[in-house]
């Protein structure tokens, strides 16, 4: 019979060979509690239909008095709209008074999405987001242009996305640009 005071040999984690076994039944810490057990992960499907207004196509194909508009190609503009989605969702869940989706019929709250470039003029697109169903939304691009210091209307939000994936949400209030919040993906 073993002596009660005799302890079994402890295992040095640096000497363990083979695979590490993770106890899925163990209680762990999350952002809410130090003692939780993960039950499942659920993934919801979100669908965003992207439309481009005729005004955009006329501006892109024919330009204006200054000639054809360069840098507002369909794929470039579409990429900005897709990238902006995660930023807009972040701001809408973290800011009490920010919503970028039009829920009421015939409402036309617009937001300006701006891709900031280091060595080129900024890409500015004016869009409207509309609710269709719980999992389905539509976004309509009204216009696009490459321009520094793009002017936004009073009461309008502007999402400025930097090349490093960070962003800033601003709003024009009484002709003054007010910084509302920032997003840093790190």
Architecture overview:
The chain has one domain (47-183). Strands 1, 2, 3, 4, 5, 6, 7 and 8 form an eight-stranded mixed beta sheet that branches. The longest helix is centred in the middle third of the chain and has 21 residues, at 74-94. Helices cover 16% and strands 30% of the residues. The protein has helices at residues 54-62, 74-94, and strands at 47-52, 101-102, 111-115, 123-133, 136-146, 157-161, 167-173, 176-183. The chain has two helices and eight strands, in the order βααβββββββ. With 186 residues, it is of the alpha/beta class.
Query: What structural category do the secondary elements indicate?
Result: alpha/beta
Summed up, the helix count is 2
Q: Please estimate the helix content.
A: 10-25%
Spatial shape: elongated
Q: Please indicate the percent range of residues in DSSP E strands (runs of 2 or more).
A: 25-35%
| Oligomer state of the chains in this structure | single chain
Tally of DSSP β-strands: 8
Keywords, separated by commas or semicolons:
186 residues, elongated, 16% helix, single chain, alpha/beta
Secondary structure: elements and pairs:
Blueprint: E1 47-52, H1 54-62, H2 74-94, E2 101-102, E3 111-115, E4 123-133, E5 136-146, E6 157-161, E7 167-173, E8 176-183
Parallel strand pairs: 1-5, 2-4, 3-6
Antiparallel strand pairs: 3-4, 4-5, 6-7, 7-8
Summarize the structure.
The termini are far apart.
């Amino acid at each position: 019979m073993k002596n009660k005071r005799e302890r079994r040999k402890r295992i040095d984690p640096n000497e363990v060979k083979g695979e590490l076994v993770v106890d899925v039944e163990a209680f762990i810490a999350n952002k809410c509690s130090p003692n939780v057990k993960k039950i499942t992960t659920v993934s919801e499907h979100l669908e965003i239909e992207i439309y481009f207004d005729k005004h955009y196509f006329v501006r892109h194909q024919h330009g204006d008095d200054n000639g054809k508009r360069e840098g507002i190609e369909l794929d470039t503009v579409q990429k900005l709209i897709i990238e902006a989605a995660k930023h807009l969702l972040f701001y809408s869940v973290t800011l009490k008074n920010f919503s970028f989706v039009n829920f009421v019929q015939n409402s036309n709250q617009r937001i300006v999405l701006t891709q900031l470039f280091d060595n080129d003029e900024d890409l500015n697109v004016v869009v409207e987001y509309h609710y269709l169903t719980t999992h389905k939304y539509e976004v309509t691009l009204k216009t696009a242009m490459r321009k520094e210091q793009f002017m936004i209307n009073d009461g309008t939000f502007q999402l400025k996305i930097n090349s490093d994936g960070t962003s800033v949400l601003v709003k024009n209030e009484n002709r003054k640009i007010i910084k509302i919040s920032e997003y840093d993906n790190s």
